[in-house]
Amino acid sequence: MTGTNAAGNATGTISGVAGDPALPYLLTTYVNEKKAMLKGAEINWQHMLDNGLGIQAIYTWVKSDLAFDNQGAGNRFALVGLSNSANLVGIHEDATWSVRAAYNWRDEFLLSPTNNGLPNRVYVEPYGQADLSVGFNFSKNLSFSFEAINLFDASQRTHGRTRELDSSRT
Q: What SS3 state is found at 72?
């Protein structure tokens, strides 16, 4: 029997056809968590010289009033991926060449409040790497580019609740 309730919503039972196989499905949705304040600032400075050489420096600062309980058990509200970062870039630009050499640094941040469904926090330790990109304009219609990420093979290290727990390199 199908009908409507006082709010005007449909009510009733949905029945399948005899012999039809079950149709499993997964329903996911967003859920509001607690609230947290997040503030930050970024400063960016760039200077180019007449000969095509230049330098760029960027620093990003972020802060939250959320105090993550690192020792607690169970699900915890957390802002993951929150950290300060800095970049220093050397630049050369002219009609033929475009070269950028960069050092990128990021402070420690919480990667996940759980690990394999358990309340084992995962942190990424402070990390820096050097990158290089080179572009060459062969002609008006043909250019080549090369990019190298993590030139010196810097390791990214993670750990659990403390630096001595679950250390690994990626």
A: coil
pTM equals 0.69
Output the CA angle 73-163-78, nearest 5 degrees: 40
Report the alpha-carbon distance of residue 124 to residue 108 in Å, rounded: 5
Q: Is residue 2 part of a domain?
A: no
Sign of the Cα pseudo-torsion (49, 53, 54, 55, in order): negative
* Residue 8, token pair as written in the block: 């005007």
Tell me, yes or no, whether 25 lies in a domain. Answer: no
**Residue 109 domain flag:** yes
What does the alpha-carbon distance between residue 111 and residue 10 come to, in Å, rounded to a whole number? 43
The tens digit of pLDDT for each residue in 43-98 reads 999 999 999 999 999 999 999 888 777 776 655 677 888 999 999 999 999 999 99
| Residue 49, φ and ψ in degrees, nearest 5 | -90, 170
DSSP state of 161: S
Q: Which domain holds residue 132?
A: 38-169
Higher pLDDT, 66 or 141: 141
Q: Tell me: pLDDT of 131 over 70.
A: yes
pLDDT tens, position by position, 73-86: 655 677 888 999 99
Q: Is residue 123 part of a domain?
A: yes
The total domain count for the chain is 1
